[in-house]
Write a structure and sequence with these properties.
Number of domains: 2
Bound molecules: (3R)-3-hydroxy-3-methyl-5-(phosphonooxy)pentanoic acid
Shape: globular
CATH class of the largest domain: Alpha Beta
Helix content: 40-55%
Number of strands: 11
CATH topology of the largest domain: Ribosomal Protein S5, domain 2
Distance between the termini: 39 Å
Order of helices and strands: EEEEHEHHHEEEHHHHEEHE
Number of helices: 9
Largest sheet: 7 strands, mixed
Length: about 325
């Protein structure tokens, strides 16, 4: 039986701590959910299926199905309906988000995850996290081409993850909780493009770029050990090295470098870009005492928004 009452589903944002880009080539990466930003899908009764995203001025309707069959939002609802052998749900799905678009915080995967959960509930069904994760990954492939799967995994399971492409994710141990600031350059950048450019470098000059990717993998392993032992100074140094390696992969930008430098000068233990790069967000490792001062320095250096999140073995809380 399908649900006729109004209800909402949500999904958090995410941030990659270390290992982006190299993760596409089989190296490990660490990522955490960010609960202070999220996507909400509000489902209300309607005569037929409507999917609307007012922030994007987008409305998809069942009557108009032929025109948007390939649209990722429509595909998500369609796949969930297929899974349960059901016709499309007859409800209105209204998508709102506080996750900035195309900025490395996982907005695409979060929209798919919240919409998939909403579609299942609208049909009176429930998707397991494993099923939802596989579906969101399929939709990510429409957006990105060759995603590693890290975004959908951390957003669907809502846990800090150590992730290797093709092997799935395991939780990582956090010996002593730590605070990360997440600062937005305000510049959107398409992950598909930066991933494509890195692929081109890897194919055209593997002798030069393969060692960089491998070194990122080693940095991630060392960072995982430092996090488990609560060695935050060591973790910060590894974040700095990861940023330098990403810069060599050509995915930093002047704005990202400016914020990274500002954070370090204001006392951050380490700082790096996060996600696809070329814009979007950077992260800085701070102490509770230095957090406000470093956030001010980041704003002063041009950050349009600064979030903070505490990473611990439980789901992180935003601030
Ligand atoms: O830009 P984001 O946060 O969606 O991150 C992409 C992470 C990459 O490693 C660059 C690509 C991927 O699919 O893992």
């Amino acid at each position: 039986m399908s649900s006729r009452a109004e209800f909402q589903t949500t999904a958090p944002g995410k941030v990659i701590l270390l290992g982006e880009h190299a993760v596409v080539y089989g190296q490990p990466a660490l990522a955490v959910p960010v609960t202070s930003v999220s996507v909400t899908v509000t489902v209300t009764p309607a005569p037929d299926l409507v999917i609307e995203a007012p922030d994007l001025a987008l409305t998809l309707t069942a009557q108009d199905e032929a025109n948007h069959l390939d649209h990722p939002l429509f595909q998500m609802v369609h796949r969930v309906a297929q899974r349960f052998g059901h016709l499309l749900p007859r409800q209105r799905f209204r998508i709102t988000s506080t996750i900035p678009f195309a900025s490395g915080l996982g907005s695409g995967a979060a929209v798919s995850a919240a919409l998939g959960r909403a579609a299942a509930q609208a049909l009176g069904q429930r998707l397991s996290d494993d099923e939802l994760n596989a579906m969101v990954y399929d939709i990510e492939r429409i957006h990105h081409g060759t995603p590693s799967g890290i975004d959908n995994t951390v957003i669907v399971y809502q846990k800090p993850v150590y992730f290797i492409r093709g092997q799935g994710a395991v939780p990582f141990e956090v010996g002593v909780p730590f605070t990360i600031l997440i600062a937005d350059t305000g510049q959107t950048a398409l992950t598909r493009e930066s991933v494509g450019d890195v692929r081109h470098l890897m194919e055209s000059a593997p002798d030069r770029y393969q060692p960089i990717v491998q070194r990122i993998g080693q940095v991630v392993e060392s960072a995982r050990a430092a996090i488990a032992l609560g060695q935050h100074a060591q973790l910060g140094a590894l974040m700095d090295e990861n940023h330098a390696l990403l810069d060599q992969l050509t995915v930093s930008s002047p704005q990202l470098d400016r914020l990274v430098t500002a954070a370090r000068q204001a006392g951050a233990l380490g700082a790096k870009l996060s996600g696809g790069g070329r814009g979007g967000n950077m992260i800085a490792l701070v102490t509770p005492d230095s957090s406000a001062h470093i956030a001010d320095a980041l704003r002063h250096a041009g950050a349009v928004r600064v979030l903070s999140t505490v990473v611990s073995n439980t789901t992180p809380q935003g601030g």
